[in-house]
Specification:
Length: about 270
DNA sequence: CTTCACGCCTGTCAGC
DNA sequence: TGCTGACAGGCGTGAA
């Protein structure tokens, strides 16, 4: 479900609510979502810890807890985190319930149950390879034009697949990759190393612009995504190509096409993207 | 090392 | 109405 803008929006909406709160107990209704350590150990470690800070890296959320522990959550396709007071309805697909000392709850809900949770001391985060091997993310100081040029230079795979590789760039997913390529005027099946300097520069700017817009609009809601307050995002109203098959391109009026690239649904304007 | 197909899960929707 | 197949915002694994 969520990509960088959605996870960042969840972080912002949840942060002020969970910070400083102490976890009284944890109910684990679907233990297989816990990837490290075992579910009983996870429960034991998290219980009675205080949330110090809520951070994000790519699409991972990191709850920094007291005693140097970090709870890591990846929402994958349909994971959702809700903060709620006891009077509010519980999501039908709730699999974990964290109850705070004041009675409020943090719910982890997930329709397809592909999400993953971990808890470990900060010094052991290297265990999560997707986190420790993640490339620089858009809008960060490490994500520069020369970095993008370097990773494109020797790769002959499709540009779309490269942009989805979290080890190269962290945080981009299917929506924002399609949108970035549309804004840059680049066809998703172009070989990465075939981009000109001008196209690479346009792509660099497009990625940052699209991610910033996604954050500014509080994320994109197609179906499942909600922020930490259970509210939908707004960026779906600003999409150029994603989910717009057979609708008209706002620039040239051509019909947006949908194909498959690297096994992922892919949307582009056949007239504007080369 | 890069690239690709596949599996993991469950729900929704279009088409027949 | 009921059924079937395609599709879904992600990523780890194993094979070529």
């Amino acid at each position: 479900m969520p990509e960088l803008p959605e996870v960042e929006t969840i972080r912002r909406t949840l942060s002020k609510k969970v910070q400083g709160k102490t976890i009284r107990c944890v109910e684990i209704l679907l233990p297989r979502l816990i990837k490290w350590p075992s579910a009983p150990e996870f429960q034991a470690v998290v219980t009675h810890k205080t949330v110090k800070n809520l951070a994000r890296r790519g699409k991972y959320l990191l709850f920094y807890l007291s005693e140097g522990q970090v709870m890591v959550v990846h929402l994958r396709m349909t994971g959702r985190l809700y903060y709620r007071t006891p009077d509010m309805a519980r999501d039908r697909f709730t699999h974990l319930v964290f109850t705070f000392e004041n009675g409020d709850e943090l719910l982890y809900a997930d329709t397809r149950t592909l999400g993953t949770l971990y808890v470990m001391p900060e010094g052991e985060l290297w265990r999560i390879s997707g986190l420790s091997q993640m490339g620089p993310e858009p809008l960060s100081a490490e994500f520069t034009l020369s970095y993008l040029q370097t990773i494109l230079a020797k790769r002959k795979g499709k540009i779309k697949s490269l942009l989805l590789n979290q080890n190269l760039i962290g945080g981009l997913g299917n929506i924002y990759v399609d949108e970035s390529l549309a804004l840059a005027g680049i066809h998703p099946e172009r070989a990465a190393n075939s981009l000109t300097d001008e196209e690479t520069k346009n792509l660099f700017q497009a990625i940052n612009q699209v991610i910033q817009a996604g954050i500014d609009h509080g994320g994109t809601t197609f179906r499942d995504y909600r922020n930490g307050e259970g509210k939908s995002g707004d960026h779906q109203r600003h999409l150029r190509v994603y989910g717009r098959k057979n609708q008209l391109c706002a620039i040239c009026g051509s019909k947006i096409e949908r194909t498959e690239v690297g096994g992922r649904g892919t949307h582009y304007c056949p007239h504007c993207q080369h």
